[in-house]
């Protein structure tokens, strides 16, 4: 098979993504010792992150040049709003966080920066820019889920087993593959200048992914609290 754009991307992001596996939040999830308070913080921030992130798939549908691409983006939108956010709603119920509290979480600085960056790039750009903004998110969680699922006992952990099962599942592997395929199709025949631009978007969102783990680990909101 010809070399694909995502093969080039993998070479660029792999060293950065390996840092996720060493991050204390991700290590704690995989080894089962992550403090619940930190997981709760991630859960609430991630819920509001996913609300804005879903808009990217809607933008992808709107900017698509053909029905097949429209359909791919609409499937990803549905998968996020129902499958992925159901995981969060299930955890919230377990933790006694009401649906209203979950939905009304104030986005932290990192969450705001990350979603604003993606929405800005996607709104200003074309369909391939939208595909580039969503790629690292869907692919890197699947990468992490699959790695953590190899840790003995991780899939059966009372609290975090469900998280690892979800992100390593066939459904989520398929969602990540759809995002990769979309990116490859849209990158076909593009000149190097445009490919380099898409690569930078994917690298930056990968860096934001690391910052999101840091935000959860340190339970960050904004640097100065209202008095
Ligand atoms: C910060 C952050 N980054 C990535 C994901 C994972 N994710 C986002 S969309 C998608 C594809 C299908 O829903 C996946 C796997 C997350 N939850 N939170």
What is the radius of gyration? 17 Å
Q: Globular, elongated, flat, extended or rod-shaped: what is the shape?
A: globular
Query: What sequence of helices (H) and strands (E) makes up the elements?
Result: HHHHHHHHHH
Strand content: under 5%
CATH homologous superfamily designation: Heme oxygenase-like
Characterize the biggest β-sheet.
none
Ions and ligands: the ligand Cc1ncc(C[n+]2csc(CCO)c2C)c(N)n1
- CATH topology, by name, is Heme Oxygenase, Chain A
Could you tell me the number of beta strands?
A: 0
The CATH class assignment is Mainly Alpha
Instruction: Write the CATH architecture name.
Output: Up-down Bundle
Structure description:
- With 227 residues, the chain is mainly alpha-helical.
- The protein has a single domain, classed as Heme oxygenase-like (Heme Oxygenase, Chain A), CATH 1.20.910.
- Helix content is 78%, strand content 0%.
- It is built from ten helices and no strands.
- It has helices at 5-22, 24-31, 36-63, 67-95, 99-103, 109-124, 127-148, 161-168, 170-187, 192-217.
- The mean pLDDT is 97.
- The ligand Cc1ncc(C[n+]2csc(CCO)c2C)c(N)n1 binds at residues 46, 49-50, 53, 79-80, 84, 137-138, 141, 172, 175, 209, 212.
List keywords for this structure.
globular; Thiamine_Salvage_TenA; mainly alpha; 227 residues; Heme Oxygenase, Chain A; binds the ligand Cc1ncc(C[n+]2csc(CCO)c2C)c(N)n1
Topology at a glance:
Blueprint: H1 5-22, H2 24-31, H3 36-63, H4 67-95, H5 99-103, H6 109-124, H7 127-148, H8 161-168, H9 170-187, H10 192-217
The structure holds ligand VIB.
């Amino acid at each position: 098979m010809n070399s694909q754009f995502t093969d080039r991307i993998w070479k660029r992001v792999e060293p950065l993504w390996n840092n996720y596996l060493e991050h204390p939040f991700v290590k704690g999830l995989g080894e089962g010792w992550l403090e619940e308070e930190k997981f709760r913080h991630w859960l609430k921030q991630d819920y509001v992150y996913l609300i804005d992130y879903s808009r990217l798939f809607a933008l992808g549908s709107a900017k698509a040049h053909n029905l097949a691409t429209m359909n791919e983006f609409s499937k990803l939108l549905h998968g996020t709003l129902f499958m992925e956010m159901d995981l969060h709603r299930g955890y919230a119920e377990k933790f006694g966080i009401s649906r209203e509290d979950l939905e009304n979480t104030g986005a932290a600085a990192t969450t705001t920066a990350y979603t604003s960056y993606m929405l800005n790039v996607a709104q200003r750009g074309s369909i391939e820019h939208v595909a580039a903004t969503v790629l690292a998110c869907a692919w890197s969680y699947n990468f992490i889920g699959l790695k953590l699922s190899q840790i003995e006992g991780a899939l059966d952990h009372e609290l975090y087993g469900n998280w690892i099962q979800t992100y390593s599942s066939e459904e989520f592997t398929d969602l990540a593959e759809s995002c990769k395929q979309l990116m490859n199709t849209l990158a076909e025949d593009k000149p190097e200048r445009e490919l380099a631009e898409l690569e930078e978007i994917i690298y930056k969102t990968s860096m934001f992914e690391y910052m999101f783990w840091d935000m959860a680990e340190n339970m960050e909101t904004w640097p100065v609290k209202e008095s």
